């Protein structure tokens, strides 16, 4: 969800104004995905590298996420959305926010209409390192380490591989996002800044995805004319 700072700068506003305006985009995309019957939606909200930002901006983001959770928790639950947070919610995150995250996770844990994963204090490299450490701690023999067994040691191993990554604002970077899960994802880079991103843009990205041929490294062999 990229472009909050540029959105604010274009309007001669502080960066925090861009973060605040982004709440509408978040809810709009969640509702659009829910209406489309998409079973898994992930939002990259805050990375392990974002802690390097100025303290005032970080503090604002923490409070904004807390207010957003409290404002929309019951609606998300009523929609049948299971909410999960991918990251270290109990280490550097303020205790009050960590409790709200835990409460939302508990409230919605039995919902299955859609799973919403919020990557918050998330780093793809860190997840991979921790999976490797978990394999070592569990004394898994090297010859038994496969892609499947490795993935089982990642956070939320039931999460399927990512099909489509939408990176707003026209930037072309992975930014340490779910590195294992995006190995064969399709990518789209709409130039619209995240605070202006709406359901219509989301549908355009889905239409683009539906028109692509996913081969996963294989080669499509044309069917001879007249044969099925």
UniProtKB/TrEMBL annotation:
Its cofactor is Mg(2+). One of its GO terms (molecular function) is transferase activity. The keyword Transferase applies. It holds the Pfam family Prenyltransf. Mg(2+) binds at residues 2, 186. Its EC number is 2.5.1.-. Substrate binds at residues 3-7, 15, 19, 47-49, 51, 53, 167, 173-175. InterPro entries: UPP_synth-like (IPR001441), UPP_synth-like_CS (IPR018520), UPP_synth-like_sf (IPR036424). Signal peptide: none annotated. The active site is at residues 2, 50. Keywords: Magnesium, Metal-binding, Transferase. Binds 2 magnesium ions per subunit. Catalyzes the condensation of isopentenyl diphosphate (IPP) with allylic pyrophosphates generating different type of terpenoids. Homodimer. Belongs to the UPP synthase family. This is Isoprenyl transferase. It comes from Actinocorallia aurantiaca. The lineage of its organism: Bacteria, Bacillati, Actinomycetota, Actinomycetes, Streptosporangiales.
């Amino acid at each position: 969800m990229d472009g909050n700072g540029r959105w604010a700068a274009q309007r001669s506003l502080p960066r925090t104004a861009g973060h605040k305006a982004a709440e509408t985009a978040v809810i709009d995309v969640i509702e659009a995905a829910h209406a489309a019957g998409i079973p898994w939606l992930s939002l990259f909200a805050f990375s392990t590298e974002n802690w390097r930002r100025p303290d005032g901006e970080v503090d604002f983001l923490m409070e904004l996420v807390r207010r957003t959770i409290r404002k929309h928790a019951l609606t998300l639950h009523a929609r049948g959305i299971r909410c999960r947070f991918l990251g270290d919610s109990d280490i550097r995150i303020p205790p009050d926010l960590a409790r709200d995250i835990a409460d939302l996770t508990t409230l919605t844990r039995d919902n299955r209409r859609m799973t919403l994963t919020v990557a918050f204090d998330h780093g793809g490299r860190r997840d991979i390192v921790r999976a490797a450490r978990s394999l070592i701690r569990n004394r898994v023999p090297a010859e038994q380490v496969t892609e499947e067994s490795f993935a089982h040691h990642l956070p939320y191993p039931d999460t399927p591989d990512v099909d489509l990554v939408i990176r707003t604002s026209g930037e072309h970077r992975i930014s340490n996002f779910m590195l294992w899960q995006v190995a064969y994802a399709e990518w789209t880079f709409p130039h619209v800044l995240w605070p202006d991103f709406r359901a219509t843009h989301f549908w355009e990205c889905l239409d683009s995805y539906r028109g692509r041929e996913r081969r996963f490294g294989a080669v499509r062999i044309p069917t001879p004319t007249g044969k099925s």
